[in-house]
Design brief:
- It is built from 8 helices and 2 strands, in the order H-H-H-H-E-H-H-E-H-H.
- The protein is mainly α and about 240 residues long.
- The chain has a two-stranded antiparallel sheet with strand order 1-2.
- Helix 2 packs antiparallel against helix 3, helix 2 packs antiparallel against helix 5 and helix 7 packs across helix 8.
């Protein structure tokens, strides 16, 4: 392996480690630590590709390693966390929901690996699995902020279907904006810093609530973009008929 490939792959391994630790913490009943570990994996996953591109160290090996890491950290780890935290009392419905999340996450990753080589775009097709896992992790942190102990959180069975919705969004054709592919060329460095500082300020005020809100809004953004696309298509057809 070339030396320049070591750094981005090491960061990917760190994301994998966070996912593995999340599973261990879940088994111990430390649900909040498990959730934070998933969010830490989210951060590592967000920078490994950027660093690989900056170092000109992208490779097929790194792509495959990243997918395997994502399946553990954002597929298996959040599914086990949600099952142990909320889904276990619902028996077969609960563990099948957890499995469906993992299966749809694997399908989402496989489809992404094929499309990323053929369809370079600023949008993802389907909800990215890290975002789906982030919503699960941030929801637990938000509940802990409200109740003090997420293990004592009781819900109606309707909440169980959240994981079904997330699984559907991952394998859907809804477009989601890709923050990994933002092009900062042509944007002043000062403006980038202002945006960065404002983001930290907003999230830092109420991190438990803001993280959950941001992940929720991103999950819903695909539906909104699809509706806007349908509306524009109808308007174009009507104008062509005139």
């Amino acid at each position: 392996m070339k030396k320049e490939l070591v750094v981005p792959n090491f960061i990917t391994i760190m994301a994998l480690f966070c996912g593995f630790y999340s599973i261990i913490a879940t088994e111990k009943g430390d649900y909040d630590f498990a959730a934070y570990a998933i969010l830490a994996a989210f951060l590592f996953d967000g920078i490994d590709g950027k660093i690989a591109r900056l170092m000109n160290a992208t490779s097929d090996f790194g792509i495959q390693l990243d997918s395997l890491s994502d399946l553990v950290s954002f597929g298996i780890a959040p599914a086990i966390l949600l099952y142990k935290w909320l889904l276990m009392p619902y028996g077969r419905l609960g563990w099948m929901a957890a499995f469906l999340f993992v299966a749809c996450g694997a399908l989402r990753l496989a489809r992404f690996n094929i499309q990323t080589k053929r369809i370079p775009s600023s949008f993802f097709i389907g909800l990215p699995i890290p975002a789906a896992a982030g919503l699960i992790a941030s929801s637990l942190i938000f509940v802990k902020h409200l109740t003090g102990n997420p293990a004592n959180f009781s819900i109606s069975i309707s909440y169980v279907f959240m994981i079904y919705i997330l699984a559907f969004l991952m394998v859907s054709n809804f477009p989601y904006f890709s923050f990994k592919k933002i092009d900062f060329h042509g944007i002043k460095t000062f403006n980038i810093m202002v945006i960065f500082v404002l983001t930290i300020f907003v999230v830092g005020l109420y991190p438990e609530m803001m993280l959950f809100l941001l992940f929720t809004l991103y999950a819903l953004s695909g539906l909104l973009l699809s509706l806007l696309k349908v509306k524009r298509t109808k308007e174009t057809l009507e104008e062509s008929r005139v």
